Amino acid sequence: MKALFLSAFVLVFAATTCQVEASEDGVNLVNLGNVEGKSYFAGTSQMNWMIARDLCRNSGMELATITTQAQVDFLKSKYNSTTFSGYYWIGARDSQSFRALSWDSTDTEIETLFGIKYRHFAAKYQICAAYYSGTDETVIDAYECTMNDVTGLICET
Ligand SMILES: *[C@@H]1O[C@H](CO)[C@@H](O)[C@H](O)[C@H]1NC(C)=O
């Protein structure tokens, strides 16, 4: 119960001041508001997806998920040409938890065979999702996770 009161207080505080300082790299997270019991925070900074995820976690949050119509409608309603506009990393990436190899000819995954070692040197995830907040279009785009051109992130708690 104490934890609930504390988080309620933090949310009220965030809503009142409208800005919460991220603990590292100086990213300001702006409280977009609450929908279906969770709060979305948006921040602006050029970063790749891994760094975006770390920034959310450093603030005790996770990259945002958008899983219901109400959440889509909510984010759409928050479009603002100065404060919430453009591309924001969100918490989706390749559906494989770890990139796997398939034989090109048969499209079947390489199985572990006796006497041969499998080593993975590539990035764990290759494509990651960014939410686009715009005037007429609302889009989820897939980019290379390592791309630095995405200028924002959305965390949730
Ligand atoms: C966008 O955000 C700014 C800063 O908070 C605010 O002054 C302005 O009214 C907002 N615009 C719209 C259309 O809500």
UniProtKB/TrEMBL annotation:
Residues 1-22 form the signal peptide. This is P-selectin. One of its GO terms (molecular function) is carbohydrate binding. InterPro entries: C-type_lectin-like, C-type_lectin-like/link_sf, CTDL_fold. Keywords: Lectin, Signal. Residues 35-134 form the C-type lectin domain. The lineage of its organism: Eukaryota, Metazoa, Ecdysozoa, Arthropoda, Hexapoda.
